[in-house]
Design a protein that fits this description.
This protein is about 35% helix and about 20% strand. By secondary structure, it is of the alpha+beta class. The strands form 9 sheets. It has a 5-stranded mixed β-sheet with strand order 2-13-10-3-9. It has a 5-stranded antiparallel β-sheet with strand order 16-15-14-19-20. Strands 5-4-7-8 form a 4-stranded antiparallel β-sheet. It binds a DNA duplex through helix 7, strand 16, strand 20, helix 18 and helix 21. Keywords: DNA damage, DNA repair, DNA replication, Ligase, Magnesium, Manganese, Metal-binding, NAD, Zinc. One of its GO terms (biological process) is DNA repair.
Length: about 700
DNA sequence: GCGCCTCGAGTTCC
DNA sequence: CTCGAGGCGC
């Protein structure tokens, strides 16, 4: 049999061994064909032959699910960055939006915007309202009017290069007339209901499994390695946002920008309107809700944005999402099913989290079989659920109501008491760790029960490693949740602590290249893994601090610490000092924004433990740590610590803080001997007195503006 | 001391 | 995405 011919033996009549052999052979042939097609640009197979191979390969996996491993080609195509799509760093990050479900949250949002801007409670603020399309967000970069790069959202900072696939979308112009030198248009790629049905019919004709919903089909189509497949899928696009624009943005409102996109030839959503109050926004929300079923494409809510771009700039961002926009989601679809069991998972901090194992049920187009139960009290029904007191206690065997929160995360909402089996017993939450058997205790006043096993608990160790390699921390491609347990257990090349990741290649050399001979590993995947690890060896200080996994020190707090200390050595020394009980250092940390006793205690406890310190030393010895992005140093207030107090009249407190930080100053909450300036509005009290006692410079808002001008 | 806001730590499915 | 809790303003 030649490599490119396809066996006619029905896949389900093959033995497991025969199937495995054929699967492997086809995988190699397909990989080779891909290489020729993409790299050498010289295909040796016709499209039809390639498709036949591919279909046989997938049919084998369908009949023999054991073949569908992380190494499988079909997994590599829809899954995480496979190395086949290039990475694209967004010039301006693509952020996510905050959510609202109840009308009240929308009113709150509008109130928050007004308050932040210092407007009267009933002052009109122009806001746009537009349907929230349920597809994939994409950023299209045009240089000199030609489509240059198209990227998926990714983690918001770095996405995947899907330019070739985007070029197959007819609705997206390849060339723009009268566009600025650089223009990034952002919007949603989606599939209409009609086209979705057509694609699924074709999938079935070809004996392939149908897509669960239009969004999955759109995602699968956009992330095809083969643009010829994408071209068969009539994807559509709506433009609603932008990234970099140079030399200048031509309009000064959100609605004006969308109109401009329309003039440039992009599809824009016809249901976009400008409103002036929360009531008008809600009225439009209801109008769109009524039209939902007849729109012909999926939407999952309505997005509201402050229209004036100057106001958007003043409002700025909160951590990951803009303060000037919110997504008002439609109520999630609910379903009932039976709770078969309650599993306990152990997190990296030792937290025991109960997970509901459900009789599989379709909710919102996806089959759900697991759902979080949050904690011990949630199962008992202690506490409140919004306005209403929860009275359920959740028992194994119960019929439960499930929804996908924000249409994503499955959640057990309630039980149906009438359907409770007579023999159902109240759930007894374990008091020992299911992984290591150590006692699991609940601290006074805490909701979570934690395993006390610490270093002895393998579940915790594994979760800590998982945290280290995760995307928001060291982001090591090819060493994800799937592979880590395999390395953790491995007798030859174990990864038991973070430093082990970076010594892996060395140890492998010493062991005569064992990795590539391991099951599921080839020479290529071993090399890819080593390359990814090498690429992560240089880390920004904030990510390193986040990687330590200190309680209460996540992404944001790590960044605060990194900026405050600048270098690993400075941070490390401060942490050691505070662990030794140094009061000055404690005070210095306390003066940092958002850092208080709980964070300092956690930091001190971590560095007081010799095993942690040794582990960290070993890790840092393997890394090149980049100094933290220096705050601006060329402004009059750079490096100074400022405290705002009293009622500010020229700017809101948040604006004042954002402004000072932009200029490289640190904003502290309380006055200390480290404070350089106190900016006092009318009605300032004890902080002003303290500033005078300490001889700190006190100024008015006007004097502050004069200083920073 | 209370209440608001933000962050961290947990979670699912593709 | 949600919940709980820390930080901080009032």
């Amino acid at each position: 049999m030649s490599r490119s011919s396809v066996s006619a033996v029905p896949v389900d009549s093959l033995s497991a061994e025969e199937a495995r052999a054929e699967h492997e052979r086809l995988g190699e042939a397909l990989a080779e064909a891909d290489r020729q097609y993409y790299q050498d640009d010289a295909p040796t197979l016709t499209d039809a032959d390639y498709d036949a191979l591919r279909r046989r390969y997938e049919a084998l996996e369908a009949a023999h699910p054991a073949l569908r491993t992380a190494e499988s080609l079909s997994e590599r195509v829809g899954a995480a960055p496979s190395g086949k799509f290039g990475k694209v760093t967004h010039a301006v990050p693509m952020l996510s939006l905050g959510n609202a479900f109840a009308d009240e949250e929308v009113t709150d949002f509008v109130g928050r915007v007004r308050r932040f801007l210092g407007l009267e409670a009933d002052a009109p603020v122009a806001m746009t309202a537009e349907p929230k399309i349920d597809g994939l967000s994409c950023s299209l970069r045009y240089v000199d009017g030609r489509l240059a790069v198209a990227a998926t959202r990714g983690d918001g900072a770095v996405g995947e290069d899907v330019t070739a696939n985007i070029r197959t979308i007819h609705e997206i112009p390849q060339v723009l007339k009268g566009a600025p030198e650089v223009l990034e248009v952002r919007g949603e790629v989606y599939l209409s209901h009609e086209d979705f049905r057509r694609i699924n019919a074709r999938q079935e004709e070809r004996g392939l499994p149908p897509f669960a919903n239009p969004r999955n089909a759109a995602a699968g189509s956009l992330r095809q390695l083969d643009p010829r497949i994408t071209a068969e899928r009539p994807l559509r696009f709506f433009a609603y946002a932008w990234g970099e624009i140079a030399p200048a943005r031509p309009r000064d409102t959100q609605s004006g920008m969308v109109k401009w996109f329309d003039e440039l030839g992009f599809p824009t959503n016809p249901l976009t309107v400008v409103c002036e109050s929360a009531e008008e926004l809600l009225a439009h929300y209801r109008r769109i809700g009524e039209m939902r079923a007849t729109l012909g494409y999926d939407i999952d809510g309505v997005v509201y944005k402050v229209d004036d771009l100057a106001l958007q700039a003043r409002l700025g961002f909160v951590s990951r999402s803009p303060r000037w926009a919110i997504a008002h989601k439609f109520a999630a679809e609910k379903a009932t099913t039976i709770l078969d069991a309650i599993d306990i998972q152990v997190g990296r901090t030792g937290a025991l989290t109960p997970v509901a194992k459900l009789r599989p049920v379709t909710v919102g187009g996806v089959v759900v079989s697991n759902a979080t139960l949050h904690n011990e009290d949630y199962i008992k029904g202690i506490g409140t659920d919004g306005a209403r007191f929860r009275e359920h206690d959740i028992r194994v065997g119960d019929t439960v109501i499930v929804q996908r929160a924000g249409d994503v995360i499955p959640q057990v909402l309630d039980v149906v008491p009438e359907k409770r089996p007579a023999d159902a017993r109240a759930y007894a939450f374990p008091t020992t760790c299911p992984a290591c058997g150590s006692p699991a205790i609940r601290e006074e006043g805490e909701a979570v029960r934690r395993c006390t096993g610490g270093f002895a608990c393998s579940a915790q160790a594994l979760e800590r490693l998982r945290h280290v390699v995760s995307r928001r921390v060291l982001d090591i491609e090819g060493l994800g949740a799937e592979r880590l347990p395999f390395f953790y257990e491995d007798p030859d090349l174990p990864i038991r602590e973070p430093a082990d990741i970076f010594t892996l290649a060395r140890r492998d050399q010493a062991n005569l290249k064992k990795l590539k001979d391991k099951e599921g590993f080839g020479a290529l995947s071993a090399k890819n893994l080593f390359d990814a690890i090498e690429a992560s060896r240089t880390v920004p200080l904030d990510r390193l601090i986040a990687a330590l996994g200190i309680r209460h020190v996540g992404e944001t707090t790590a960044r605060v610490l990194a900026r405050a200390y600048g270098t690993w050595q400075a941070f490390h020394d401060a942490a050691v000092r505070v662990a030794e009980g140094d009061a000055d250092t404690r005070h210095e940390l306390d003066s940092l924004d958002q850092i208080g006793d709980a964070v300092i205690d956690a930091l001190a406890a971590y560095f007081a433990e010799p095993r942690n310190r040794a582990m960290v030393e070993r890790l840092v010895a393997e890394l090149t740590v980049q100094e933290a992005e220096k705050p601006k140093s060329d402004t009059p207030v750079a490096g100074k610590t400022v405290v705002f107090t009293g009622s500010l009249e020229k700017m809101t407190r948040d604006e004042a803080k954002a402004m000072a930080e932009r200029l490289g100053a640190k904003v502290a909450g309380s006055v200390s001997k480290k404070t350089d300036y106190v900016v006092a509005g009318p009605g300032a009290g004890s902080k002003l007195d303290k500033a005078r006692d300490l001889g700190v410079i006190v100024m008015t808002e006007d004097e502050w503006f004069e200083l920073v001008k």
